[in-house]
Amino acid sequence: MNTINIELLLPFLIPCLIAVCYAMMRSPKVWLGISILCLPLFLQLSGEGLSVTELVFGVFYTIPVVIWIVWTWATTNTNLIRWWGDFFIFLFLALSILNLLVAVLNDVDPISWLSEWSLFFLLLYYFPLREVFGRSERDFKQMLTVSAVSGLLMALSSLYMYKQKMSMGFAFAYQVWSSRSVLLGPVFLLVIFIALVMLFHSNFRGKLLLTGLIVVNSLALFLTFTRTLWISFFLCLPIIMMQLRPRQNLKLMVTMVGMAGLASAGMYVYNPRLTTIVSRVVQNRFLSSTQLSGGDGSFETRLVEAKSAITLIKRYPLGGSGLRKQFLSWTFTDNYHGYHSFVHIGYVGLVYKLGFPTAIIFFICIGLFFVRAFVTYWKTRNFSNRSVTKAVSIGIAAFMPSLLIILFMAGFFDERYGEIMFAFVFACTSITYELAMRAPTELQTIQ
User: Fold this and answer.
1) pLDDT tens digits for 284-299?
2) Contact (Cβ atoms closer than 8 angstroms) between residue 393 and residue 425
């Protein structure tokens, strides 16, 4: 859906925003549920500049969560800062405000700076998700169910957009590749990891629903033609397999091979020529990875881009250059010099914009949640197979190394989906850890 069509909904979105703020006070679950279900629309908005639609959705997602934080601190005895990971999130947000001065001194428009800085507020969703859905496994299941529906809608939307582009009569390999949508690839990978483990911890009805979820997201992930995500899946799959029994691992392998075979056969029957082209695209994508020079323009662009950003980092190592500060770099894929502020290598991009001290704080935060995810992974190894806590802890632990890999190849910190994913992954990590620590005996006997 484009911006023009969405703006027709503005008379309905504004009252909806007011209703969400009211629901936030009266029923936080309703507020969070609506926010999660609206993510497929919010994450795929890509208007030029700061459109009215993006402004409305920005307010829709940032203002209520800030109000919730202030309201919770002011009216309840809830301790939101329970460990160092929580502390570093707030510290990062506080220090990032100082970046405005740096950006203004580097001739960045304050409104433009604010539009990117406000994305950091999406991190705060970690706290209400943890507090509202972390009270019991029943509450946690509700969050996972709503999130699964949202993830399914994202995948279906991505597939629909790809189909629409392909219906224009594309017939060449480069057109098949250029029709892809890579924006939500990490989301699809996260959904697959969690749903794959849940598949072995659910009843028959749940298995059917989860299988459909996995199939749709796998197809959407495949059509991103993103090698980093494909490789990350297979590199991290052993983390899941170590927590499954030998028989379950055999079923997993047979199921994966069978699904891949059926999908290939179905595609060939549906459109043999298109299947041949897609196979050629996949082959070329992997072959280009073996050529660090002259073969993979995308990879070379990232290296040149990072080199340009690192030059500026050396100039301003402490305060950075400021959010939305543009720099000149060469793009191999389009063969031109251009100014842009986006750096595909996320670690470099964050340091370039915020400087080493502030960026390192967030890196430490990610590291702390990474360690906690694997601590929970180990603590839940003997829990019942019907334990949601165990299933999600395995899926999150499998995704964590993928996240560190993805940050090398994608500007995760600059994207709204990246901040939302941080909030969701952090919330799942904390919820599973606290549930595991709170009542280990009860969880080990769940039937």
Assistant:
1) 666 655 554 545 566 7
2) no
